[in-house]
Design goal:
There is one protein chain. The protein has about 50 residues and is an all-alpha fold. It is built from three helices and no strands. The longest helix is centred in the last third of the chain and has 13 residues.
């Protein structure tokens, strides 16, 4: 499972999580900058909806 898939799966079960909670909730978390970039890419691709 890729980091992107793991983040999306985590958000599926914890939809109101912030970046820190996501980083703590996944296995082998990358740096905060990488998580931020991956989340921004997912939002751009329409995979995540931001409230």
């Amino acid at each position: 499972m890729t980091i992107e898939d793991e983040i999306l799966q985590y958000l599926h079960y914890h939809p109101l999580s912030n970046r820190v909670e996501i980083t703590l909730g996944i296995t082998n978390p990358p740096s905060g900058r990488i998580v931020k970039r991956l989340l921004a890419d997912a939002v751009t691709k329409g995979m995540i909806e931001v409230l």
